[in-house]
Amino acid sequence: MKREILITQEGLEKLESELRELVEERRPDVISRIKSAKELGDLSENAEYSSAKDEQSFIEGRIQELEDVIKHAKVVADSARSNDKTIRVGSKVTVKVEGDTDQYELVGPAESDPAKGKISTDSPVGKALLGHKEKDVVKVKTPDGEVAYTVVGVA
Question: Which of 1, 32, 84, 127 is most exposed by smallest CB count within 10 Å?
């Protein structure tokens, strides 16, 4: 089975940029720090060495993660070009929920950032909104019960 990770063009470019920074800047920097720390002698009590090794481990793990996401990325079409205004990955959606108006951009899990209004299509709200259109009322099951989201706009 072919594994696809849905992502917007903007999201893919951000991941590629992060990968370049890690490979071209942060990896060489941490390798240099490890080398310098080794030259100080006894590694068992060398905090700089330990810190640099921990950072190297994190960087290498993140590089592998990014390479995997990029390898399996499937860029979704720009939903703004669609005339039918159906909510899909990449859609910017305005909803009314319990008297408040919220705006979300639906994105794949790899670029989800709720603090910036980017919600994953794997999240309960994201899943529920997919396929709906303006003026639809979408019921979302939450731990506190069912919540109604009224779709005000789709871009």
Answer: 1
